[in-house]
């Protein structure tokens, strides 16, 4: 999705790793939320309590889910993180991303 309509955007940034990863929260009319952000080159580890869809819009990174091998995304791609797991990232160039959160079904 290239753009969102009828949303609320939080003006307060989510800032991680001393400002090397930032995002803004977007809330839709039905209450679902996404974050839009930027990651600078570096290595990061995140945890999540909800299932996530990481939609990479631009940039180059490697990601590793628990129990899996490293995989690479160049320019664009999507990966999913199960709820209650952590994942590792090696960001090689500035990454533009959209993260969607899913409640347990």
TrEMBL record:
Its EC number is 2.4.2.1, 2.4.2.2. Catalyzes the phosphorolysis of diverse nucleosides, yielding D-ribose 1-phosphate and the respective free bases. Can use uridine, adenosine, guanosine, cytidine, thymidine, inosine and xanthosine as substrates. Also catalyzes the reverse reactions. Belongs to the nucleoside phosphorylase PpnP family. CDD domains: cupin_PpnP-like. HAMAP family: Nucleos_phosphorylase_PpnP (MF_01537). It comes from Robertmurraya beringensis. It comes from the Bacteria. It holds the Pfam family Ppnp. It is an enzyme of class 2 (transferase). It catalyses: xanthosine + phosphate = alpha-D-ribose 1-phosphate + xanthine; adenosine + phosphate = alpha-D-ribose 1-phosphate + adenine; inosine + phosphate = alpha-D-ribose 1-phosphate + hypoxanthine; guanosine + phosphate = alpha-D-ribose 1-phosphate + guanine. This is Pyrimidine/purine nucleoside phosphorylase. Keywords: Glycosyltransferase, Transferase. InterPro entries: Ppnp, RmlC-like_jellyroll, RmlC_Cupin_sf.
């Amino acid at each position: 999705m290239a753009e969102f309509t009828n949303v609320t955007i939080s003006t307060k940034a989510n800032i991680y790793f001393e400002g090397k990863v930032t995002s803004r929260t977007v809330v839709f009319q039905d209450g679902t939320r996404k974050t839009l952000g930027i990651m600078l080159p570096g290595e990061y580890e995140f945890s999540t309590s909800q299932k996530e869809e990481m939609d990479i819009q631009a940039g180059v990174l490697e990601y590793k889910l628990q129990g899996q091998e490293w995989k690479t995304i160049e320019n664009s791609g999507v990966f999913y993180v199960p709820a209650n797991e952590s994942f590792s990232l090696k960001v090689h160039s500035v990454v533009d991303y959209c993260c969607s959160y899913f409640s347990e079904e």
